[in-house]
Design brief:
The chain is of the alpha+beta class. It folds into 2 domains: about 5-85, Phosphorylase Kinase, domain 1 (2-Layer Sandwich), CATH 3.30.200.20; about 90-295, Aminoglycoside phosphotransferase (APH), C-terminal lobe (Aminoglycoside 3'-phosphotransferase, Chain: A, domain 2). About 45% of the residues lie in helices and about 15% in strands. It contains 10 helices and 10 strands. The protein has a 5-stranded antiparallel beta sheet with strand order 1-2-3-5-4, sandwiched between helices. Strands 6-8-9 form a 3-stranded antiparallel beta sheet. Strands 7-10 form a two-stranded antiparallel ribbon. Strand 4 (about 70-75) and strand 5 (about 80-85) form a beta hairpin. Helix 4 (about 100-120) packs across helix 8.
């Protein structure tokens, strides 16, 4: 049965509207039942365990009082799974943050940092995970793909060399539950008071520091005060000594992987991501510095 009709016939939604936002493979809908809006995410049945885990972790955050979509139902159909959440009426933070004073942008970021700390405190099982092996293989694989696709940007050889020469930094890192795509584009501005966190569909287990790569890549272009606030809110004004070298490694990987990923989309998408890559290279003064210019 076609998804929209399934939601109307079986789950009794009076209105169902397709939500064409984001890069997720999921189908997202807004369903209205008895004048109440629900966010409905439909995934392939092969993602059943992953989507259930995501639903359970979001439930824990909601129970702790964090502003996330309230989970309502997780349903298994023959070939799909359906996650139903309360819809949050709010503005996209990335389209409104420029209208806020810098002090409020910082406060939004500080709150996002505190929320990220709570996300990283969620329970996980890590017994079977070798993070060094997982991440080093991932980084080297992306380098190989980048070279195979004949991609290029100025000084990319410095980025590739930096990754290969610093894989040892990945050893003995702590593991946490990760949101997976934590940046301004996945946050909402609720009543001009705080940010709500959405789109956990890329959630994973990994290094807590890695979670800041999207902030340094995407949020940084939107609002530097926000990113500084996120760091302060997470670390409580005490960034650890090992953070900057690891972030530089993660950002190098992010530059390579972003361009490799972009090849499945349009040329304009690749060119847009290349602008972000060149921005990051400038932030790190062509990798001569361990700390980006905007943070000094």
């Amino acid at each position: 049965m076609e998804q929209r009709q399934l939601l109307i016939d079986k789950y009794h939604y009076q209105e169902v509207h397709f939500l064409n936002k984001g890069w997720s493979v999921d189908q997202k809908w807004i369903g209205i039942k008895d004048q109440v809006k629900h966010l409905i995410r439909i995934s392939d049945i092969q993602l059943r365990n992953r989507r259930r885990w995501e639903f359970e972790q979001i439930s824990r955050l909601y129970q702790q009082g964090w502003p996330v979509n309230r989970p309502l139902l997780f349903i298994e159909e023959a070939d799909i799974v359906i996650g139903i959440y309360m819809y949050i009426e709010a503005e996209d933070l990335q389209t409104t943050i420029h209208s806020l004073p810098e002090s409020m942008q910082y406060d939004m970021g500080y709150f996002a940092g505190e929320a990220l700390s709570a996300i990283h405190a969620l329970p996980i099982e890590t017994d079977s995970i070798n993070q060094y092996e997982k991440m080093s293989k991932k980084m080297l694989k992306h380098i190989d793909l980048y070279l195979q696709k004949n991609l290029h940007f100025h000084n990319d050889h410095l980025v590739i060399d930096h990754i290969k020469n610093n894989l040892h930094l990945l050893s003995d890192r702590p593991l946490v539950f990760q949101h997976g795509d934590y940046h301004i584009g996945n946050m909402l501005l609720v009543q001009f008071q705080h940010a709500a966190i959405i789109d956990f569909n890329r959630c994973d287990i990994g290094d807590p520091y890695e979670e800041f790569d999207r902030a340094y890549f995407f949020s940084r272009k939107q609002s530097i005060p926000f990113v500084i606030g996120q760091l302060d809110g997470y670390f409580k004004f005490g960034i650890p000594d090992d953070f900057h070298k690891l972030m530089k490694l993660y950002m190098c990987h992010n530059m390579i992987s972003a361009l490799t990923w972009s090849t499945q989309f349009s040329t304009s998408s690749m060119e847009e991501l290349k602008k972000y890559v060149l921005m990051v290279m400038e932030d790190y003064d062509q990798l001569q510095n361990d700390i980006p210019k905007w943070l000094k």
